[in-house]
Amino acid sequence: MKISKIFFNLLLSTFLVSCGLENMASKYNTVDFITTPPTLQAHAGKVNLTLDANFAQKYFAKQATVDFTPVLTYEGGETAFKTITIQGEEATGGEATIFNATGGSFKYQDAILYSEKMMNSSLELRAVAKLKDKEKKLDPVKLAKGVISTSTRVQNSEDLANQNHGYEHETILEQSATIYFLVNQSNIRTTEKSTEAIKSLKAFASKGYKTHSITVISYASPEGTVNTNDNISDKRMQSTLSYTKRLLRNLKVDGARNKDMYIQKSVGEDWKGFEDLVSKSKIKDKRKINKIVNSIVDVDVREQQIRDLAEIYDALSDNVLPQLRKATIIIKSYEPKKTDEEIAQLSMTNPEQLDLKELLFSATLTNNEKSKMDIYNKVVELHNDWRGFNNIACIYLEKNELEKALDYLNKAENIKSGDALDILANKGIIYSRKGDLSSAQNLFNQSNTTEKNQAILDIRQAEYAKAARFFKNKQTHNATLAKLLNGENNARCNEQTAECYYLNAIANTRSNNYDAAISNLEKAISLKDSYKSESLKDLEFINIRTNEKFIKLTN
After folding, report:
1. Could you give the domains of the chain?
2. What integer pLDDT is reported at residue 11 of this predicted model?
3. pLDDT tens track for 331-352
4. Counting C-beta atoms within 10 Å of the first and last residue's C-beta, which end of the chain has fewer, N or C?
5. Rounded to two decimals, what is the model's pTM?
6. pLDDT of amino acid 319
7. E-assigned strands of 181-325?
8. Strands 172-180 and 262-269
9. Residues 6+ apart with CB under 8 A from 1
């Protein structure tokens, strides 16, 4: 009798458990599921899902749990979001509790990485109800269809960091010499004509380069009256100018007899030079001197107050003022250059005759990929310079061969000396394209990349407002994409490419201008036939799928 009672209780328990699960399964259609957004979208390389579930009264068994798993299914596979467990009020192990008497709700959020296959997909919710040692699969619930992937249409148009040759078609060389005078004197002493600075000036002038300009600047030390010092500065100008003309004419310097080649400037009292020399000197109370210079406008009063500093003035008179009684001669000349044609030829026939800058520059003179590669390899071979490998990486980046590009950037990094920001910028582009957005941002920060590169990364990071601000007055593909994703449905691309026409068609549909959408879509398909099948999957065009013109266009 006792055994029969135990058996009966066990049978009753099993029956009740079975009834509880069956009841939940039979009334599962009363559960209300809402996805936000109603159609899934890809942003920042991910598909985000927000799911709200509401349960009616008396639905959820007190001791039951249900495992809910949203799954995105597509041709060739599926990707599951995380599973969330919901429990009845007498169960354990759940992340939210639903009471039997009152019902209840839960909110769920998760994200998965986006792939192109998800564009044509279906989101379903799978659930398994459990009660004690029993479980039952509930019918899958279709939540949404497809993923809008417009944000992934970013074009790889970044600024590659390879403009690093440093070559100038025009380089102005400069040589200067300073002549010093005695106090209140303007005649040039013989000893001043044979200084090392003058010898260097003569050697430079004798090279026979084409002259850019010849400048003479004269000064006076700031003791005495302003008028006196202005006059002595003017006289020093004239004596130094006469000396310079004679010297350069004797050396047969280009332009030496051309008066328009000369630039003359008489500064007068050199208070700036005075302040600089005092700051660099070991004179006591030099801060007090510079305070007087900076605070007193009247130069006569300023000079008198400095003179009143008796102990200091002797040091100024010996060590500072003599260096301000001067005139400086500056010769600027054009550095002789090879023609672009000569550089291009030597890069192929005898690259050893080019310096590093010329060799790097020569790669910009050809459109032949192999020639560029050969030149950049010579850069490494002859100069062991990292820019050779870096710029080869950019050739692969242009073809979006990211692994090869990264390999060469690593080679460049191994031989670089000092900062090589180009390497970091190019690595940032690679990581941006590969979807490692945080690494890309870090590299862009380190390399101080261009605003354009940052704006393209902003699109990929779903920072649409920031990207749209950069592209404000532009109508390129990426500019239009940024604005469109930022809610500016009137944005239009003015590039006559298949990609731009397709993007304009999307903008048209968002603006409910369906005739214009079909017109732009027709242009896109005429240039790129694959857009025919792609537009059939693209949920941007769901509102015109029944349009006869659309059907005819995509058949």
Report:
1. 2-148 (2.60.40.10), 152-165+338-455 (1.25.40.10), 172-334 (3.30.1330.60), 463-555 (no CATH)
2. 36
3. 999 999 999 999 999 999 999 9
4. N
5. 0.81
6. 85
7. 211-220, 262-269
8. unpaired
9. none
